Amino acid sequence: VMQCSASLDVLFLLDGSYSIGKGSFERSKHFAGKLCDALDIRPDRVRVGMVQFSSTPHLEFPLDSYLTKQEVKDRIKRIAFRGGSTETGRALKYVLRKGFPGGRNSSVPEVLIIISDGKSQGSTGMPAMQVKERHVTVFAVGIKFPRWEELHVLASEPTDQHVFFAGDADDAANGLYSTLTGSVCSATAPGCKVESHPCERRTLETVKELAGNYVCWKGSQQPNAVQASLCPVYTWKRVLIKHPSRCFRTVCPEPCDSQPCQNGGTCVPEGLDKYHCLCPVGYGGDIHCAPKLSLECGVDLLFLLDSSAGVTLEGFLRYKAFLKRFLQAVMGRDSPMNVGVAQYDNNVRIPIEVGQHKDAFSFMKSIDALNFGGGGTLTGRALRYIAQHGFRSTPVFADMQDDLPRVVVLLTDSKSQDPVAEAAKYARDRDLLLIGVGSSFVRAELAEVTGNPKHTIVYSDPQDLFNRIPELQRRICSVDSPEGCQAQSLDLTFAVDASAGVGLENFLHMRDFVRNSHLHFTINRDVTQIALVVYGSKPHTVFALDTHTSNSAFLQAIDQVPFLGDSASAGSALLHIYGDVMTVQKGTRPGVNKVVVVLTNGGGMEGAAAPAQQLRDNGILVFVIVIGDAQRDILLKVAGSPNYLVHISSYEELEYYRDLIIERICEEAKSPVNLCKPNPCMNQGICVLGPGSYRCECHGWEGPHCENRVLRGDSPRSAVLPPPSHVQHGSSGWQRFSRASWHTKRH
């Protein structure tokens, strides 16, 4: 973004002596390329040339040789290290004698950039002064561990704006731009300004250090006399020396400085004035990660607030704030829902009847008027009362029943002082959907109330309560909707960490997670296919996608899953899935969404990012579910996006997240599918896309997917595929069929 754009001649003097060495010389070249990024290189603006110096100077290319920035950077990369002594003074005299080769003869400002370690073997003071007297601006850039005193002699004044360190290329490029902006370049971008801040220069110096006093023998003036004495002994060692300095850098306001992303979203800057937000699951209603919460489902909704002494006044006020934030997000003018609020302690009250308010403003005023009770916690009594009286005020007509689903959301953080199971069953038997929201302290009781872990929402701390708003919205709108992906075609592979780091007991928790996931799917060849891979140091396929064609067969096979107990390598497991599981030979179906779900404790993920990307490049989503503490940055590379990374604090809580995770998978499985990803053609066949279809071009093979070798001189042909509904699996693999049509997308 920051480029010096002006008519300017720039000549690099690149130290290629033996004191630099070949490695540091390559870093100098890289640094010179970085400095070019800060220059607007083109014939009528900035021109660049380069001289390499050691024992003698050598012109690498004049200023009029290359016309674009990329050409200059490519040429710099090809420069070869020459070696020799460090004759900086001779190089400066070359510039005094030759000028800027290919330049515009001082008709434009001239800038000399010297990249060196400052350890010249000759005098540099006089030629440096003569160069500067010709109105050449001189920058000195230290490489390796430079001799800063000499670099300050070489550079123009003020030296703290003309001396840089190549070790931090981006910082030095900013410094060059900042200094040039104050003289020859156009003004900085709007909002940007040059600021001064303390910095330091580092170098290695050899210092003399007293090691101690040791006995030595000295002669005396007397004949044949030698005296014993203590003599100092010194050692020499290299010490890192830091020199305080000041740096001038251009600072621009970042668009993310104002923290525009809400609800835990991550701001990613795009240039000087643009950004985008990476939003957590459930957010993204606008560019700032507002909740995706418009309650488009029509329900009669009653919030039941615990206002007993057990939740305390602070907890009750938190519930009121939660209610207001929820309703602000979901309650619009055309919302099809009716909402009310009840509260309970020893007694039950319904201060806001269901459907009483149709606008958010009047609703907020009624919520503000709610008072804390402070009595006992009689949750069972409250549930029975609500089942009998909570929805009596819902608008009905004489000849017409109100058939909207009825939902009760219980907000509590205190264990009930009366039984809840029978009262909750009474409410559910009257067709009320009960949703429980509370802390982990009341998790078991909430599960008893709701009768279904899916309808239990547990928050970890008071602030986390507000993060559960999107999940609550989904639970409310899930009433009467089909669960899971039962109506969607999906090829799903679970990769389960069976290493010693997980342990047998925790492995069984993950196995149960996979087993219970079958409740959300219809397992057969036409709808959902599931494969299971367990892995330690090596992966093991428990069953392939096309092995089991019913939910009952899937359940029987799960109990045979082996625990491996060695080290973990998620990378080898994902490579195995890519090459041996998610393939046509092993049952994947073209035109069907494909997902891999990795269950792990976060160990053995070091080499997993590349195969995970390979899966994504072939149209296969990768979800990572990590249990316990793990390095988020590595896991994020494997998942590819925060949207596909789920972190769970303990194995015991894994089961409570199953429904949410499966819902997320089903939501993503609705995305469009590339029929050629992964490649359905076997034996190096080439997949060719058509409009809503594909065909395989075979070489030395034939058949719909190039599965049959050409025999007895048959010429290889392209297999043209019919719709997938006509593709049948036989005992010998893919059966052959006519080549009359293309293979079309599964609907």
From TrEMBL:
Keywords: Disulfide bond, EGF-like domain, Repeat, Secreted, Signal. Residues 717-747 are annotated as: Disordered. It is found in: Secreted. GO terms for molecular function: calcium ion binding; identical protein binding. It holds the Pfam family VWA. The keyword Phosphoprotein does not apply. One of its GO terms (cellular component) is extracellular space. The keyword Disulfide bond applies. Residues 253-290, 672-707 form the EGF-like domain. Residues 9-180, 300-476, 491-665 form the VWFA domain. GO terms for biological process: calcium-independent cell-matrix adhesion. PROSITE patterns: EGF_2 (PS01186), EGF_3 (PS50026), VWFA (PS50234). Transmembrane segments: none annotated. Forms monomers and multimers. This is von Willebrand factor A domain-containing protein 2. It comes from Nycticryphes semicollaris.
